[in-house]
Amino acid sequence: xxxxxxxxxxxxxxxxxxxxxxxxxxxxxxxxxxxxxxxxxxxxxxxxxxxxxxxxxxxxxxxxxxxxxxxxxxxxxxxxxxxxxxxxxxxxxxxxxxxxx
Length: 101
Fold this sequence. Notes:
Layout: H1 3-18, H2 25-43, E1 47-48, H3 52-60, H4 66-78, E2 82-85, E3 92-95
Antiparallel strand pairs: 1-3, 2-3
């Protein structure tokens, strides 16, 4: 993804924040990020491997939205907020920077 594309998307998310859009894309991505951040902080490590179903349960209130959670994690990774190493049970997610949108 190009830098301009990422900057444009972050700017759209900042606009949603400023307009206090609840339940929108930004709100769900931030909830996903905050859950991962909390899990990393509580683990005492710099990495964590939360299950997508657990994140879905916190963000949506059910475990049926794993595909959306995967999409949010991918977007956070592509935007430079988290890093993801490995896959499945060997996946490790690391927080790179705080949310600024």
